[in-house]
């Protein structure tokens, strides 16, 4: 059987899993986990692979061992040759509405599916995705879908992708008893919690985007039970070399999950082999703080958790040797390795960074001079002199765009939820509805020119979002009460990019119009001024900077920058608009 491959990010992975491997292999399934007798701070896992020749024909199944923290790099469908992967199977991508609450899902085994008469047959390769063999036994989360259909996701994949963004979270939850888990993940708060907030302070070894999971584990008993269950299963297992991991959702509520995989059981179920993204849980605003990084003496440690080293490796080697046999050295450098991006679906959770200034604290950095390491490990630092650095693996997040205008609206709603004491209200406006706080904003349609209006053809056509169907452009108008000011934002609807003649690729991006921000005095002139703007913006084809000098108040334009640490799309654009009237993020806190 021949599969279709697509290009992906190139990973180098020459550890014991694939070293000196002559065959071309594709990751096919995750098996049981078991204790690691060499690198004791990271459990190991069986992975099943299939041979695949250079014509992409699939062959037999082989089994390998790796550490649990490497699963995020060894995605199902990734194709490996001599320790390197730069392509993967082109599975079908789907997005499903699901309930993460009890009753919306259950844990099933392959045997359960067989007893229920549910087939693993898929037209993807005209066979069962998995043979009914004991070595492939595993647990899956079976989500209920409308029309009595189902979404099946391997528990190991759900654990690797949905329990935080860093491999360190998975390592700690699967390795230590609960009291040790808390010691390795959390630090004492610097200040008491404010009403309606969940402050969380965590160690430097986990990622900043782990804050949501860590806060829920700290404040939500449901999440704590789900997290505690990971290690309790391992500790209670009668077969320590063949432990089948059950993993449940750690939050409740309705949401969405995006996966790639294959349809099975005559289309009655979908087998999600890769989780691409997921909804975040609703709840209190999270105040996030990470401990400062410091070095530790380069000596053998005891069982107490060590500080994370301060030296991050800047010159990334071409070949990264990830070992599953040795712990990293104390005081060694650390290397940040990205997995595939994880898409946040829907409304992101409000997470604010809290910073505390400590005065007269001596510099506690030690004397190790790291940087010569050639091998890296995701384990707990132990000993020194081995030449093993620390690998920090995490999945970067990306935010699902709902279209530019909707993203601007959502960014304002996010800032209102994050800073309710300073961003007092957000509402959209149309002449028919007035000001509305409905979650679904409406646009004001521009008025097309009359046939006898003396305007150039390009100006007359600009008014339409689609010149063939003659659908007018829309304009989003928003009022914001922030601090003691009332300001208005205006954004113009963009045309979608035109496809190439071939069909799939974009030929050009839509124009990047600036936004307009203004305040008015007196307030009663709002509708009169807005009608003028909506009329005049047609003549200047959306170049709003030509209109600002006529505003009966203050008006300015703003660009739409993208910031690396945006909590939601367009957050940086909104803050840029605020800055035009002298309001910074610091003023909102």
Topology:
Blueprint: E1 5-12, E2 25-34, E3 44-52, E4 58-67, E5 78-81, E6 84-89, E7 92-99, E8 105-109, H1 110-115, E9 121-122, E10 127-128, E11 139-145, E12 149-154, H2 155-162, H3 167-173, H4 178-185, E13 197-202, H5 211-219, H6 221-236, E14 254-264, E15 269-279, E16 285-290, E17 321-322, E18 334-338, E19 342-345, E20 351-353, E21 375-377, E22 388-394, E23 397-399, H7 404-418, E24 423-430, E25 434-436, E26 444-445, H8 457-462, E27 464-466, E28 471-472, E29 474-482, E30 485-492, E31 515-520, H9 526-539, E32 553-558, H10 571-579, H11 585-588
Parallel strand pairs: 12-15, 13-16, 15-19, 16-20, 17-21, 18-22, 19-23, 21-22
Antiparallel strand pairs: 1-6, 2-3, 2-5, 3-4, 5-6, 7-14, 8-11, 9-10, 11-12, 14-15, 24-25, 24-29, 26-29, 27-28, 29-30, 30-31, 31-32
Give the tags:
single chain; 11 helices; 31% strand
Structure description:
The protein has 589 residues and is of the alpha+beta class. It has 11 helices and 32 strands. The strands form 7 sheets. Strands 7, 8, 11, 12, 14, 15, 19 and 23 form an 8-stranded mixed β-sheet that branches. Strands 24, 25, 26, 29, 30, 31 and 32 form a 7-stranded antiparallel β-sheet that branches. A 6-stranded antiparallel β-sheet has the order 1-6-5-2-3-4, with no helix packed on it. The protein is globular, with a radius of gyration of 27 Å. It starts with a strand and ends with a helix. The model is unreliable at 293-311, 356-369 and 503-508 (pLDDT under 50).
């Amino acid at each position: 059987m021949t599969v279709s491959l697509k290009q992906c990010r190139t990973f180098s992975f020459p550890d014991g899993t694939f070293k000196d491997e002559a065959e071309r292999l594709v990751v096919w399934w995750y098996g049981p986990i078991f204790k690691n007798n060499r690198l004791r701070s990271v459990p190991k896992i069986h992975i099943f692979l299939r041979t695949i020749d250079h014509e992409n024909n699939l062959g037999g199944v082989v089994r390998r061992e790796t550490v649990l923290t490497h699963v995020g790099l060894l995605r199902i469908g990734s194709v490996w040759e001599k320790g390197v992967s730069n392509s993967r199977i082109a599975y079908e991508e789907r997005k499903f509405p699901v309930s993460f609450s009890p009753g919306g899902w259950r844990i099933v085994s392959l045997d359960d599916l067989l007893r229920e008469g549910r087939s693993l047959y898929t037209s993807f390769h005209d066979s069962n995705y998995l043979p009914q063999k004991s070595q492939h036994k595993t647990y899956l989360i079976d989500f209920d879908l409308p029309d009595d259909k189902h979404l099946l996701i391997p528990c190991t994949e759900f654990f690797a992708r949905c329990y935080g963004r860093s491999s360190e979270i998975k390592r700690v939850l699967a390795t230590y008893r609960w009291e040790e888990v808390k010691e390795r993940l959390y630090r004492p708060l610097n200040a008491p919690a404010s009403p309606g907030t969940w402050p969380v302070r965590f160690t430097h070894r986990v990622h900043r985007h782990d804050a949501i999971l860590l806060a829920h584990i700290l404040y939500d008993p449901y999440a704590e039970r789900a997290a505690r269950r990971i290690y309790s299963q391992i500790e209670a297992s009668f077969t320590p070399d063949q432990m089948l991991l059950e993993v449940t959702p750690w939050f409740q509520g309705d949401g969405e999950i995006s996966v790639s995989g294959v349809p099975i059981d005559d289309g009655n179920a979908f087998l999600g082999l890769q989780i691409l993204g997921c909804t975040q849980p609703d709840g209190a605003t999270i105040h996030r703080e990470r401990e400062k990084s410091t070095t530790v003496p380069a000596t053998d440690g005891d069982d107490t958790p060590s500080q994370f080293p301060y030296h991050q490796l800047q010159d990334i080697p071409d070949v990264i040797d990830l070992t599953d046999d040795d712990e990293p050295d104390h005081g060694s450098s650390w290397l940040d390795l990205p997995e595939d991006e994880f898409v946040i679906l829907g409304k992101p959770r409000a997470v604010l960074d809290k910073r505390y200034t400590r005065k007269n604290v001596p510099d506690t950095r030690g004397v190790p001079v790291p940087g010569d390491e050639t091998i890296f490990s995701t384990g707990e630092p132990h000993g020194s002199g081995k030449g093993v650095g620390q690998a920090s693996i995490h999945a970067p997040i990306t935010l699902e765009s709902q279209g530019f205008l909707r993203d601007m609206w959502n960014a304002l709603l996010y800032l209102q939820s994050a800073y309710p004491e300073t961003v007092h209200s957000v509402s959209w406006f149309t002449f028919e509805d007035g000001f509305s706080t409905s979650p679904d904003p409406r646009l004001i349609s521009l008025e097309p020119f009359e046939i006898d209006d003396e305007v150039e053809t390009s100006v007359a056509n600009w008014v339409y979002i689609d010149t063939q169907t003659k659908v007018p452009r829309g304009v989003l108008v928003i009022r914001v009460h922030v601090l003691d000011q009332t300001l208005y934002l205006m954004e113009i609807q963009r045309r979608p990019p035109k496809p190439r003649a071939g069909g799939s690729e974009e030929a050009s991006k839509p124009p990047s119009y600036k936004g307009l921000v203004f305040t008015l005095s007196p307030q009663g002139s709002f509708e009169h001024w807005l009608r003028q703007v909506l009329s005049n913006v047609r003549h200047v084809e959306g170049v709003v900077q030509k209109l600002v000098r006529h505003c009966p108040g203050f008006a300015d334009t703003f660009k739409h920058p993208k910031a690396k640490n945006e909590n939601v799309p367009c957050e940086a654009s909104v803050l840029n608009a605020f800055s035009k009237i002298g309001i910074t993020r610091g003023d909102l806190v």
